[in-house]
User: Which sequence fits this backbone?
């Protein structure tokens, strides 16, 4: 099977949180790749990556960045692929800085912005899966099973007290 999801993070320091996205993609059997590509520190690399992403067969990009968090918007400006953005926690503003940056894209260049941190990383993977499931039966089946198992796990939880 070919690689369907490309993950790009602005820094190695974002990676620990974004392993929640790769763990989720693995559970769903979705092939993916991940790279550190900073929009500010390596802009030319970002342009190269995003310009070739669709031709290489990728279907969705998941991006993660903190602080000024230009990466998702810059990626979305270059590639026609759906771009999902996960804001990273920051020491001074708790990730609200990145969240507001990502969600406030000008009309015409959307970034599907998720929650800050772990929930956003997991949900970015699930949203990528939902997009791919529209044309990939294996992913549709895997996502349906994931959701059913999740529901069953809640139902199986014994009373807390
Ligand atoms: C952003 O700056 C990265 O996405 C990261 O969240 C933040 C801090 O990066 P480092 O200084 O830890 O490399 O570009």
Assistant:
């Amino acid at each position: 099977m070919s690689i369907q999801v490309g993950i790009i993070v602005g820094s190695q320091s974002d990676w620990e949180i974004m392993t929640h996205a790769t763990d989720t993609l693995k559970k769903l059997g979705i092939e993916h790749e991940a790279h550190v590509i900073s929009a500010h520190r390596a802009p030319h690399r970002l342009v190269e990556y995003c310009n070739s992403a669709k031709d290489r067969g990728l279907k969705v990009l998941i991006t993660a960045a903190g602080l000024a968090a230009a990466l998702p918007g810059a990626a979305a400006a270059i590639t026609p692929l759906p771009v999902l953005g996960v804001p990273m926690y920051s020491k001074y503003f708790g990730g609200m800085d990145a969240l507001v940056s990502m969600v406030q894209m000008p009309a015409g260049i959307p970034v599907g912005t998720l929650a800050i941190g772990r929930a956003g990383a997991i949900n970015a993977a699930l949203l990528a899966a939902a997009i791919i499931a529209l044309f990939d039966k294996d992913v549709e089946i895997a996502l349906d099973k994931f959701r059913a198992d999740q529901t069953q796990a809640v139902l199986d939880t014994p009373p807390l007290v």
Remarks:
- The CA atoms of residues 69 and 110 lie 14 Å apart.
- The chain has a mean pLDDT of 98.
- Helices lie at 15-27, 43-53, 71-78, 96-103, 118-133, 137-155.
